[in-house]
Structures are given as structure tokens and as C-alpha cells.
Amino acid sequence: MAAAAAFSTPSTFNLSSATQNPNFPSLPALSSSFKLAPSIANSPIHPFKSLKLNRSTRFVSAAASSPSAATSSASAATTFHGLCYVVGDNIDTDQIIPAEYLTLVPSNPDEYEKLGSYALIGLPASYQTRFVEPGETKTKYSIVIGGDNFGCGSSREHAPVALGAAGVAAVVAESYARIFFRNSVATGEVYPLESEGRLCEECTTGDVVTIELRESDCKLINHTSGKEYKLKPIGDAGPVIEAGGIFAYARKAGMIPSRDA
Amino acid sequence: MASSAVTPSTSFLVDKKDVGFSALCTQHSFPCSAQVSKKMVSKKIVSVMAPQQSERKPSTTGAVKTGMTMTEKILARASERAQLIPGDNVWVNVDILMTHDVCGPGSIGIFKKEFGKNAKVWDREKIVIIPDHYIFTTDERANRNVDILRDFCTEQNIKYFYDIKDLGNFKIFESDKLTLQANPDYKGVCHVALAQEGHCRPGEVLLGTDSHTCTAGAFGQFATGIGNTDAGFVLGTGKLLLKVPPTLRFVMDGEMPDYLLAKDLILQIIGEISVAGATYKAMEFVGSTVESLTDKTSVPYEPVYSDGQARYLSEYRFDISKLEPLVAKPHSPDNRALARECKDVKIDRVYIGSCTGGKTEDFMAAAKVFLASGKKVKVPTFLVPATQKVWMDIYSLPVPGSVGKLVRRYLRKLVVIHLRAPVAVLVCVSTTNRNFPGRMGHKEGQIYLASPYTAAASALTGFVTDPREFLQ
Predict the structure, then answer these.
(1) Model confidence over A215-243: pLDDT tens digits?
(2) CB-based contact (8 Å) between B209 and chain A?
(3) What's the CA gap between B111 and B121, in Å, rounded?
(4) For residues A63 and A23, what is the distance between their CA atoms, to the nearest angstrom?
(5) Which of A123, A169, B196, B298 maximizes the CB count within 10 A of its CB?
(6) pTM exceeding the 0.80 threshold for the entire prediction
(7) Do B241 and A240 touch (CB under 8 A)?
């Protein structure tokens, strides 16, 4: 799960892939990232990773319960499955994580969890369903569907981090604001996908959806309505996401030395 | 025009230090750039073409196939490439990295995790750390965040750290004494402080962990906002992978009326292109000038101009002489309306301040309206200078166009902070940058974005008011 990168560091994001979490592209490129495993083995994020696993197995039909999906194959697919939460256009960072919570530092594990509990708490009262129930730290909606200009406003990385910490795996929006998109890619917290057309008008909060990302095509299946929708390919962000975030990508490209060096 | 926010009249006392960053680049999240020249501020605003570069190094004439915009040229220089086109992903050398108390601790956390506990930053003189968001508060976490910045700056021997230590005393000085007492290093709002301290230089690349970092584009540099992870990467390497944006060109024609300010121009533009209209694009403004920076920075710089044959994604032309004072109605900066059409909107508060509307010119503008009216405001009016220097200007400068009437007579109770204090307002006219739901605290709060002229006029009547009611 994208949110398994508990400290929003892309290198740790790689660790949880393939073996424990099949929701990542099982591409050969990722094998280079496994070198990082020894240096992170003692990191305190391990307890958080197992928390994420426990959460994902609650979804019986989640991909996590079928380990065979984790192995590399020629037509590998990244899949996300769960309930969706639908929002409108111009969901700005103050709605995703209001300013009063910005004293929480995302690289601190306790505060990371707290940020998750406040995800989307800034939505107006017209949104009758709460994204995270009061008293909870996680959401039951692992996919957020939005309209235009999702994540506009501030550069605060707390926004994609709050969504990831709450348990969001992917956002499917009509379009994104630049910094939010970049932050999602750099941290690996949520997978920022673009829809063709206004899925926010086609889906309803609580619908069960599956997202399948393949090299050949990307789509979202709404099991509740029975409809399928095409998604846009990830584009330039692809190599960075595939590498596992900006740090992993830079190491792969030889821009910075590997951690063991 | 843009560099003289109040009026282009030559009788206006222009503090050369403050001229320039009142320019038009208040659009959020988008890198923007402005032409830089050493010309004097002229009264008549005309549309000017970027001057052709007269000299070209032989090594570049063969490689340069097409003209580049100033954004493309700045990024080419920073990535050591002869030619760039929009869409290219390049590793760019960063000249200045700015961070503050909200994103600094997170960026530092990532830096240490990725590069090691004992890693050193790439250049201790190219990092500017400015605590400004959650200051003068009893909130323990907020104060802890400033402590984290301080520890890091000490450990790394960071040259530019505008520290705040005495949280109990926000006053810079007592009444008429203009000497700094507590917190001599504290500057105030990061975007204004960066400019005031001479960190914004033409031709350079400035990245900051704040969406309004693009404000520095007013100095003819490539400036934009980034998140903690990108900043952590820059801290260690001094580089970042950036995608070259295409450029939108905005041509401002005509003489600037004396009841308009830069805010009206940008509201006009945002209303035209929408809040997403410049996503992943650079905005280039033609027709603005910036005074010489020689008294701000001793670091050499070289202004960059777009080539005559540079290619733009699109061009917008505005006849400024025909514009009227504007507001952005709730709940979006692109919900543009004429101020005079909102005259029946009763308001509860006025806020003049923040990185956007807390500069010296903004308070000069407000004071001008208050002086013209001679009456008291009808609603609580918050005046929040962006930096200590702005505060000192307010205490020492006269109202423009007046003799012996000091601005401070008209403005009271000033506090220097960056984020607006959460207030349970119903309706507020504000000179800030965004009016999305909950931006000023209450989700249902109605925020009208406006220029300082319009905000001051509205404070005097208790309704959204066109400033021409007082200025003409």
C-alpha cells in the first residue's frame, strides 16, 4: 500500500512491495531497491508496516489476500481495491488538512498517524459522510475520487501524507495541482491517477471499485454500478514512481550515492 | 506600474527597498517571472517587448535553434544545457532553498533519514530558514518546531536563520523608539523577508517549501514551491528534477489608474484563466519594472530576458486603463466580480496583511483611504505587517500625498505573523491569497479577496466597497 511508506520516504516505500504488499508494480526495476533493505531493517517503521497489512487484509477481496498477485509476471498489474470516497472540484489543501494541524511533523511516526486522523476534515458540512470517523485514525475508503484541480493551494506535503497515513492508496482525479501531484510522487504516499472525464459524477461514496494499472491500459472498475472507466497513463511521473520516489530514482540514475555507500 | 503599488505619481515616497515585490506574481503554486530592468519607474505604462540579447556566445549560436522564454533560459543555465523546451525533465542547480517552521522540520527529518544523521547540507550559504507561520504562540508543538530549526542551523552552521527566541515579546520596539529590542534576528513573513534581505536575484533558481514562493518571480528569477521530500533532496544535493514549464504571457497595456493596485490586476487574470489555468506553466508579465537591487545584495547577478522569437503557449492582453476594482467572491480566487457590484454585501471583518497584502505599500494604500475619509472604520480591521521592516516603515513614513501625516496615526495594533489567525467570521474582506472554505478558520466563513484600497474602503462602510468612493 502506498501508505506503507510511513515516513514518507520513498526508499522505505520499496521495502513493502512485492513481498508483503502486492499493490505495487512488480517490475524488474524494483529489484535494485531491495539493496536498501538491510540498512532499513532496523528502522522503527516496521511496526507501522505490519499495521498496514492488518488493515488491508480486512478487505476480503483485497489483492493483499492473494499473494500470487505479488509475483512478477510479464503482464504485471498494479491493483488497488476498496471503497471509494467522492469529492468535487478544487479540493484545496486546507480542506485536505487544515492549517491548524500543520504543527504535526510528518517524519515523526506518532504525528504521522495523527495527521491521518485529520485527513479531509476540512471538507464543508455539505459532505455528510465523514472521511475518517471521529475517534478513528484510519479511513475505510482507500480510494478518493475527485474532480478538477485536486490538491490545489499550499505546498504542504502534509496533504498527501495525511491521505496516505489515513489509508488512501490512490487518488483518481480529473486533474491535479502541480505541487500536490509532485509531493504524491516524491513521497509515494498516494498514487495520483488521472481519469478521462468526470468520475466524480459517475461514482458515489461507498461504491466498491478496483483500479488496474497495466502498461497497455489503465482502468477503474466500479463494481457497484457495473461500469468501467479508462484512466490516463501515469506519464512523466512513471519512472519516478516505478523507482520508488525521488530519492530512489536519483540513486538509480546515479545522481546520489546509494545508502550503503 | 506594478513596482509602485499605490500610485505612479512622482510625489509618492518610494522606499526603494520595498519597490518591486508588489508585482503581479501572487498566483499560487505557479512559477512566474517578470521582466527586470534598471529603468526608473515610469508614470505611463506601456507594453514593451523583451529586449533582444545583443551578444551571444559563439558556443551557443549553433546550438540555439529556437528562441527561449526567460523561464526556459533560466532553467537551461541552471541545468547547464544550451537549449531546453517545455516538457524536458532536467536536474537543476538550486541557488536558494527557503524553508520555514511548518515544513522545515519535516524536510530536515527526510534529509537526515536519506543522507544520514551526520550528513552535511550542500551549501550553508544557500539555505535560508525563516520561522514565520506559528510564532508568538503558547502551542508547544509550534515552539518545538522552531527549536528543531534552531538545532539544525547550529549543527549545520546555516548562515541565514532568522530566529525567534523571546516568544513573550512580539514588540519590536517601544512606542516611538525605533530600536530593536527582543528578537533582533526575526524578520517575519518568509516571502517578503527573502526579498528584503536580498535573497531574490534575477536569473537565479529559488525553491521554497511554500506555495507562494513564486512571489519571488517578481525579481526575474525562477521561483516555485516544493514539498518536504523535494526539499530534503535539495538540502543534500543542491539539485532537483524539474519539468520545464511552457510560458503564458501577460501583456499589460495602458496607464494604471490611481484606484487600482497589483491585486486588482491579478484578480483580473485569475478570473480570466481560473485557479487551474496556469498549472504547470510559467506566467511571464511584460511591462513591469523593478528598481535596481544594488542596495540589497552584493552577490553578482545577471538578468535574463526572453528572446524575441521565444514561443509562448498563449498570450493575454489587458488594457489596464479600463479595469475597475475587483474582488474574488467566496469560495475561490477565480470567482471574480466588480467591487461595486458587491456593495450590498454586509461584512464583519477586514484583514489587511499576509505575504500578499502585508507589504509597506499595502499599508500606505490603506492609510491613504483612511486619510481621505477622515472617519473611523465600522468593523474590526486587522492590520498585519509581513515583516519587522514593514512595521518600522509604517511607524516612520508619511501617508503618500500628504505632509506630516504619519501612517501610524491611522493604523494601530500591528502584529507580525504569516498565517491569518483562525477567526469564526461570517463575512470578511481580505488582502490574502486564497478564499477556499475554511481558509480563515471557519468552514462557512465568506471571504472576499481584494486590494488594500478596496479592503480599507470596505472597513469604512461596513460593506464591500469600491475604493473610488473615497479616492475620487
Answers:
(1) 778 999 999 999 999 999 887 888 888 78
(2) yes
(3) 9
(4) 7
(5) A169
(6) no
(7) yes
